[in-house]
Amino acid sequence: MSSFKDKIDKSNLPKHIAIIMDGNGRWATERGYDRIFGHHEGVTSVREITEAAAEIGIGYLTLYAFSTENWSRPQTEVDALMELLIDTIENETPTLNKNNVRLMAIGDLSRLPGNAGQKLNRCIDQTSANTGLALVLALSYSSRWEITTALKNICKEIKSDKLNIEDINDELISNYLTTKNIPDPDLLIRTSGEQRISNFLLWQIAYTELYFTKTHWPAFRKENFFQAIFEFQKRERRFGK
Ligand code: IPE
Ligand code: IPE
Ligand code: MG
User: Fold this and answer.
1) Contact 73, 107 (CB under 8 A)
2) In the predicted model, what is the mean pLDDT of residues 25-33?
3) What is the mean pLDDT of residues 22-47?
4) What phi and psi values does residue 99 have, to the nearest 5 degrees?
């Protein structure tokens, strides 16, 4: 059986792929398991898709792992997700280094529990010299939080005469976002059948191609990822021109 991987045009790869990893809870409950089990299984997908992205030479892979709104979930689920985050980051650091993957994080990281923040920073430091795929984790992230923060910082600079109102343009705004220095995504994938953005990268996806699949995140495998890239390559991107 031929794989979507063989059908991908290697000269026309998306530089940046962002993924809303959704459906862990439903995947688990449909199988009679606890929602938390779905989150654990989701880690296998993270590992697979990171490997797949590195394998074919994607520049940036951004994974929406925890939204600002997700803090409002039951405390037991929040705690389980944070614990999973810490364990995964610790366990995966050697593999990231082996695969030349650099870890980055975007979001309101000050809200992460102390040990999660520390372990995250340690992994970011230990992988910072890697030159392959940049794996960007969106943690405690929401676009409205990001844009609000950017706006406050821009206003502060204007108030202290470091910036003129006339200097504000697309590029300047992009440089005040947490995604500063990261190119806008070319392709955004959302799993689990929901067709919404849920406060993710609102500014950055102005001209991003959207791809929705019914597959839940814990069932999402390399072949699904390669298929999304294959479908992306069939799109005509016009950028309004
Ligand atoms: C995505 O799966 C993971 C996170 C949001 C942390 P969900 O937990 O949202 O699973 P569903 O959407 O309820 O099935
Ligand atoms: C979006 O999924 C956030 C993440 C995948 C981390 P949600 O499950 O939180 O989004 P809604 O509630 O379905 O919009
Ligand atoms: Mg969900």
Assistant:
1) no
2) 98
3) 98
4) -95, 10
How many whole angstroms from 208 Cα to the centroid of ligand 3?
Answer: 21
Query: Where do we find the tokens 């479908």?
Result: 231
Provide mean pLDDT across the span 30-55: 98
What tens digit of pLDDT does each residue of 47-71 get?
999 999 999 999 999 999 999 999 9
Q: Give the domains, in start order, of the chain with CATH numbers.
A: 12-142+184-233 (3.40.1180.10)
Q: Find out whether the beta carbon of 196 lies less than 6 Å from any atom of ligand 2.
A: yes
- Average pLDDT of the residues in 171-179: 98
The model's pTM is 0.98
> What percentage of the chain has pLDDT greater than the value 90?
99
CA distances in angstroms from 50 to 14, 35, 162, listed in the order given: 14, 23, 40
List residues with catalytic annotation. Answer: 22, 70
Which residues' Cβ are closer than 6 Å to ligand 1?
Answer: 21-26, 66, 70, 81, 192, 217
Residues 65 and 63: their CA atoms lie apart, in Å, by: 6
DSSP E strands, the chain: 16-20, 60-67, 102-106, 134-141, 187-190, 209-212
Using an 8 Å Cβ cutoff, are 16 and 60 in contact?
A: yes
Q: Indicate which residue's Cα is closest to atom 9 of ligand 2.
A: 70
Closest ligand relative to 195 C-alpha: 2
Q: How far apart are CA 213 and CA 189, in angstroms?
A: 8
Per-residue pLDDT at 2: 82
Q: Is 64 in the pocket of ligand 2 (CB under 6 A)?
A: yes
